[in-house]
Predict the 3D structure of the following.
Amino acid sequence: MKNSNKNIDILCVGEVLVDFIGHQNNVLINETRDYHRYLGGSPANVAMNCKRLGLSSILVSTVGNDGFGEYIFKRLEEIGINTSNVKKLENKSTSVIFVSKSNGTPDFIPYRNADCDISENQITTEILSQTNIFHTTCFALSKNPAQTTILKKAEEAYKKGCKLSIDINYAKELWDTKEEALQVIKKYCQFNPLIKISEDDMLRLFETALPHQEIFDFFHKLGVETVCLTLGSKGVKLSQKGKNMIQLPAIKIEKVMDTTGAGDAFWSGFLFAYIKAKTIEECLQIALKLAALKLQNVGRLPNNINILSKLL
């Protein structure tokens, strides 16, 4: 898939923030006594994972000019992420999320401030002309000015031949209304992105457990060719318009340490293999390997994830 004339493999646009993940396992936030600090935000996770897999990745995001913002810059620079497009604001604080530690879908409380202040001048035409994949999230699209910026730049990227991608990590706490969320998702789907949605996202967005084929049909009718539905411990289903559905089981692991970021690890692996022009089934296989590795680690993926890139 990669265009050799473009030197940016993946441009990740959206939230970077500080995750405080509960130390007590399988309890809700109201029962969590203490927390450990991690760098978080789905686009940031994907950018960092892809960089550590050997890809060229750029993060477009916004933080406050504060201690948490300094921590984020330090962590990004340690991994080698170019921070030229991460903006620091004097008048807003870095966004923070408290997350329960869970074997299932974690409970969370967001304290959002700087993350949604993404402006058009952070994504230049020159950057888009050098980009292979433009990736964002429902979280990033949930508030302005980021929402307007991302939709405008996604259209520009699409017209320049970028492949778009989105993690539909919908949560009602982040949006004014579900109707607005659906309207924005439909606008983004006009550009035929690669879609990643989890079973939990699906339940939150549609408020009922729809048959999986209905989910696929919903997105296909919006013009989306490839829809990836992650099913937690049951693995993954992927539908390509006009082709047979692919289903693969999850990789069995002995003990789940932390589910936070597992979806980001999965999608990082998928996009990595996609850029390497692997078959869709191979993309899913490497994605499942990366997700299994994340489930066995609290916080970020271990340092040796680059060994996975050698498996391809």
In short: The mean pLDDT is 90. The chain is about 35% helix and 25% strand. The two ends are 15 Å apart (CA to CA). The CA atoms of residues 266 and 287 lie 4 Å apart.
